[in-house]
């Protein structure tokens, strides 16, 4: 029996996966912690003393948490009603509406910040129009602007999650509530919200983590409103050189804060631990009159405002610019300048990094899902837990930990595409891993046993039977991972150089250099990739929307 276990190929897979995570995740995190508490070969907490000794530093904790909570609340207030109207009522153009909603979130948050600067900055289009009619003082900069931009970018994530939750509600439960005179808003809050509370908490956590880890939006429109990711970046790439020691200490604090939030969410979820199965799913019903009008106005207006930045960026990519000064008329001058600014290198690097990263993520996620569901034991569960650690780690933290670990021989990887692939694989693994695991749990083991009884090997049964049946879950997780990969900013801005520059980093570089027309070109091409990605997903899966 022991010999058979030793020869089991899945045991070897488990060992290899554990080694991969130990080398590229656990080891870098350990080095990050070491860098935070060791100075000149001696144990020292001076970096933490410095951090908590100045309001500017420790205030960034409260600023980031304040932004994260605010964005989370606003996103829930927008996303839950949107998903409810979409799932329970027949809205006109509902599939188009959902696709437009997704397009609103399928770009880096900082691109929205950049567009809103063009619209509502000191000399923005909307700002200038408002000034012409006597309205002054409206600005996109500061705390309010960060919350506004991030909420418009992240509320579709709530919509995606809540659509899945609403589909799982059995209509008989709602009919039973109606028979007890529980209707309208009372039914919504007492029945529907209670049944979907685990999903609401999960969506809230995801939005908070995305907002907390966002670097691009605060750095562009924060105007002195210090946040954790910006603080880490400034300390790592300060004017006086990289301060790994202090940056590592801040990174450790960031991980602790997000871990505490994660634990709070888990504890809250345990109070709503139940499963529901929709034997009779809710069918969208017709709505007329003022209710129909208000629903359509809310959904289309919300999507319209969320999409406005992307539409404006596309428009600005064709406008004439003389350096950073906008000129009358349209042309392709920005695209010609973008070619001179490494456009093709940025596109090539983006495609190479994104597809290689996604391929690695999909393979590892499928293997983890199989090990966790079909071969559950302490060792495999440990792999699953370790793979989820990046879920609570800002991208800047992962970037710095990898640089600290792989900046010296014999593992010198800094300045290469490989280290960017490693960072993105680690950072975006949890999304696909969770989707693949959920898909695996829905597949009865009897199907695999039937294939084996008909002469198929375990490996063939896995590849030919199990993986195809997991396809929908894998694709759903992969599509979200791929979009987040090509729009990654937090870790990329720390890891890149001119040879490894990507579209997102090129956009940020052009913005900070004041070359706004060229920045619009990079942003437009990034948006084009996300649109193609979404269209291919809907065409291949023939699904009405993305499911998680």
Briefly, what is this?
The chain is mainly alpha-helical and 548 residues long. The protein has helices spanning 2-7, 9-37, 46-53, 55-88, 94-105, 109-120, 125-132, 143-167, 171-179, 184-195, 197-213, 216-221, 228-236, 244-270, 289-317, 333-340, 343-374, 378-387, 395-405, 417-441, 445-453, 458-469, 471-486, 492-495, 503-512, 516-541, and strands spanning 38-39, 42-43, 319-322, 325-330. The radius of gyration is 24 Å and the shape is globular.
The neighbouring-strand order within the major sheet is 1-2
- Regions with pLDDT < 50 over 5+ consecutive residues? 1-6
Secondary-structure content class: mainly alpha
How many alpha or pi helices?
26
Shape: globular
Order of helices and strands: HHEEHHHHHHHHHHHHHEEHHHHHHHHHHH
Q: What is the CA-CA span between the terminal residues?
A: 39 Å
Give the overall pLDDT as a whole number: 82
Beta-strand share of residues: under 5%
* Cα-based radius of gyration, to the nearest Å: 24 Å
Specify the biggest β-sheet.
2 strands, antiparallel
Q: How many beta-strand segments? A: 4
Helical content (DSSP H or I, runs of 4+)? over 70%
What does it look like?
Helix content is 74%, strand content 3%. The chain is an all-alpha fold and 548 residues long. A two-stranded antiparallel sheet has the order 1-2. Strand 3 (319-322) and strand 4 (325-330) form a beta hairpin. Helix 6 crosses helix 8 (143-167), helix 15 (289-317) crosses helix 26 (516-541) and helix 16 crosses helix 26. The longest helix is centred in the N-terminal third of the chain and has 34 residues, at 55-88. It starts with a helix and ends in a 7-residue tail after the last helix. Mean pLDDT is 82; it is low at 1-6.
């Amino acid at each position: 029996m022991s010999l058979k276990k030793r020869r089991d190929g899945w045991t070897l897979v488990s060992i290899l996966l554990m080694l991969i995570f130990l080398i590229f995740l656990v080891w870098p995190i350990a080095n990050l912690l070491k860098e935070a508490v060791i100075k000149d070969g001696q144990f020292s907490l001076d970096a933490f003393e410095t951090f908590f000794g100045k309001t500017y530093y420790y205030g960034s904790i409260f600023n980031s948490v304040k932004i994260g909570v605010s964005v989370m609340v606003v996103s829930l207030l927008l996303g839950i009603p949107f998903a409810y109207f979409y799932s329970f009522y027949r809205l006109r153009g509902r599939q188009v509406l959902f696709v437009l909603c997704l397009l609103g979130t399928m770009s880096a948050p900082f691109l929205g910040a950049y567009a809103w600067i063009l619209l509502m900055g000191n000399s923005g289009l909307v700002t200038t129009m408002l000034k012409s009619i006597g309205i002054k003082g409206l600005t996109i900069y500061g705390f309010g602007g960060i919350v506004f931009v991030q909420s418009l970018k992240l509320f579709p994530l709530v919509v995606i999650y809540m659509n899945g939750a609403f589909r799982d509600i059995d209509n008989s439960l709602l009919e039973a509530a109606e028979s007890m005179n529980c209707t309208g808003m009372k039914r919504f809050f007492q029945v529907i919200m209670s049944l979907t509370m685990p999903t609401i908490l999960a969506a809230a956590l995801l939005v908070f983590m995305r907002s907390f880890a966002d670097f691009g939006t605060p750095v562009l429109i924060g105007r002195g409103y210090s946040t954790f990711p910006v603080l880490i970046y400034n300390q790592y790439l300060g004017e006086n050189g990289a301060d790994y020691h202090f940056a590592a200490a801040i990174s450790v604090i960031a991980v602790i804060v997000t871990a505490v939030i994660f634990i709070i969410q888990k504890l809250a979820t345990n109070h709503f631990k139940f499963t529901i199965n929709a034997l009779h799913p809710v069918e969208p019903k017709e709505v007329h009159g003022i209710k129909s009008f208000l629903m359509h106005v809310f959904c289309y207006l919300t999507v319209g405002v969320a999409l406005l930045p992307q539409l404006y960026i596309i428009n600005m990519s064709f406008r004439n610019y003389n350096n950073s000064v906008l000129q009358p008329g349209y042309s392709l001058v920005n695209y010609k300048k973008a070619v001179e600014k490494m456009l093709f290198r940025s596109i090539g690097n983006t495609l190479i990094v994104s597809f290689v990263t996604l391929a690695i993520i999909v393979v590892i996620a499928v293997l983890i899902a199989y090990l966790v569901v079909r071969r559950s034991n302490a060792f495999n569960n440990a792999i699953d837990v370790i793979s989820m650690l990046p879920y609570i780690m800002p991208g800047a933290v992962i970037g710095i930990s990898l640089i600290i670990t792989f900046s010296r021989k014999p593992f010198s990887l800094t300045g290469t595409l490989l280290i960017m692939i490693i960072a993105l694989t680690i950072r975006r693994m949890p999304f696909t891993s969770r989707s693949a695991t959920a898909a695996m749990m829905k597949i009865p083991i009897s199907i695999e046993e039937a294939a084996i009884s008909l002469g198929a090997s375990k490996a063939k049964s896995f590849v030919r039977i199990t993986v195809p049946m997991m396809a929908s879950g894998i694709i759903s997780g992969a599509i979200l991972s791929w979009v987040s990969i090509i729009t990654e900013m937090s870790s990329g801005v720390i890891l890149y150089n001119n040879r490894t520059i990507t579209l997102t980093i090129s956009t940020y570089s052009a913005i900070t250099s004041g070359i706004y027309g060229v920045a619009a070109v990079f942003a437009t091409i990034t948006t084009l990739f996300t649109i193609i990605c979404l269209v291919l997903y809907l065409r291949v899966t023939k699904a009405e929307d993305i499911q998680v």
